[in-house]
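Worked example

This section walks through a single chain of length 197. The input is the sequence exactly as stored; nothing has been trimmed or padded.
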Amino acid sequence: MPIIICPGIHEPDLTKSFVQGCLNLTEDSCSNKNQVDILIYHGQGYLTLSTFHILHFLCDRLGAPSDRLNNKLKSPLIFLCFSAGVIGGIGAATAWQLWGGHVQAFIAIDGWGVPLGGNFPIHRLSHDHYTHWTSAYLGMGEDNFYADPAVDHLSMWHSPQSVRGKWVNPSVGFSPIKNYLSGSEFLNLLLERYNKK
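Given that input, the structure is written out below as tokens.
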């Protein structure tokens, strides 16, 4: 199952820290653990916002969605995007599905102010309660997470394993389903869920 990682506008070392600390993988060994293939989009600066460039990256790595003979296209994708990368990522996920590809889920980490919608499950992780609930009006799925106590924005990316917070599901009420799990634990629960499908 390919996981497409779309970082934000920050130092590339923060993404390496995320992959190692949260997903317990290194970039070099990503393709061998639990049949998970991690593809990291390395666009810098404003290219993180570019749906076009992310789609070009996907086509380069996986082939065009219209190529039905390509086995990589049969596998559903999970988009895992952070900050500004959420902007380009949601556009790429939507376009990929419109082209005939399959998006298993879209996970937005601190994509505050970014409208999210699509014909696939969407999850938000936020660095504080305010960001979480003000983003709800712009689209969120069933299972989401917010840090409590609040942390700074970049902590959600470079060390989600040390961020404590609450798992909430708005479809069953506003009370948290589970208090005080880490951001990393929440992400891995989602990935495990979608890896079984």
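What to look for: The chain has a mean pLDDT of 84.
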